[in-house]
Specification:
With 158 residues, the protein is an alpha+beta fold. 16% of the residues lie in helices and 44% in strands. The protein is built from four helices and eleven strands, in the order βββββαββββαββαα.
Length: 158
């Protein structure tokens, strides 16, 4: 039986996952540089060991309520065709092993952006629901328009 591993994280009390092969690293929150005119879900740019990386606030991306002002998000850095992108999440979970018999289609109750970004749900042995995200669709929020290298150069020279 085929086992798929998901790196998990929580947002607003719900468990989400991204296939382990798509995850580059998990890091603590870092200071962000604001990107003028970027999509609302683009929280800013961060310097990840010398590489400028776009950070997407997953609460905004999934149309969830904003996190508490004193809550500090974590970074799940994912690999994309265009480079690394950081997803700001509430907390990091474990790596979960899933099998095809645990898979179900996107729940009918799911609406909005989440319905477009979640490819399905896995029922874990503890009966918790793991919502599997499509990384490519999740990071496709107009991040190319942010022009990270130019923004960082401009802000560094001002």
């Amino acid at each position: 039986m085929t086992v798929t591993q998901f790196s998990t994280f929580s947002l607003d009390g719900q468990l989400y996952g991204i296939q382990v092969e798509s995850v580059h690293s998990v890091t603590r929150f870092q200071a962000l540089t604001h990107v003028p005119l970027a999509a609302p879900s683009v929280a800013g740019l961060l310097n990840l060991r010398g590489q400028v990386t776009t950070a997407i606030d997953m609460r905004v991306r999934l149309d969830l309520p904003p996190r508490d002002a004193d809550a500090i998000p974590m970074n799940v850095v994912v690999k994309t065709d265009d480079g690394l992108v950081s997803l700001l999440v509430d907390s990091i979970g474990d790596v979960e092993n899933t099998t095809p018999d645990q898979f179900d289609d996107v729940p009918e109750s799911m609406t909005g952006a989440a319905r477009e970004l979640v490819i399905g749900a896995y029922t874990l042995p503890n009966s918790q629901l793991l919502l599997a995200l499509d990384v490519a669709r999740t990071v496709d929020v107009g991040i190319r328009s942010a022009a990270p290298a130019e923004v960082m150069t401009d802000s560094a020279t001002k």
